[in-house]
Amino acid sequence: LGIMGAVALTVLMIPVVVRSVEEMLKIVPNELREASYALGVSKWRTIVKVVLRTSVAGIATGITLAVARVIGE
């Protein structure tokens, strides 16, 4: 019973996390990406080193809000 409840609450949490991560990744300015590309950095490295590092605080906030919502349920 406990595992089924945990799975159900996790399914409730997924859309909130996905939406918040999507919004945080959109907020990162294109100028940062373009500057990285101009320096010759590959696309995957730009994503890891520039985009994710810039948006990690917002992603953590979205995850925290999703967990708080699940706890409230």
Outline of the structure:
The protein is built from 3 helices and no strands.
Task: Please report which band the strand proportion falls in: under 5%, 5-15%, 15-25%, 25-35%, 35-45% or over 45%.
Answer: under 5%
Could you name the ranges where pLDDT drops below 50 across 5 or more consecutive residues? none
How many strands?
Answer: 0
Largest sheet: none
Our count of helices gives 3
Mean pLDDT: 93
What portion of residues is helical? Answer: over 70%
* Distance, first to last CA: 16 Å
What is the N-to-C succession of helices and strands? Answer: HHH
* Overall 3D form: elongated
Describe the protein:
This protein is mainly α and 73 residues long. The protein is 89% helix and 0% strand. It contains three helices and no strands. Helix 2 runs antiparallel to helix 3. The two termini are 16 Å apart.
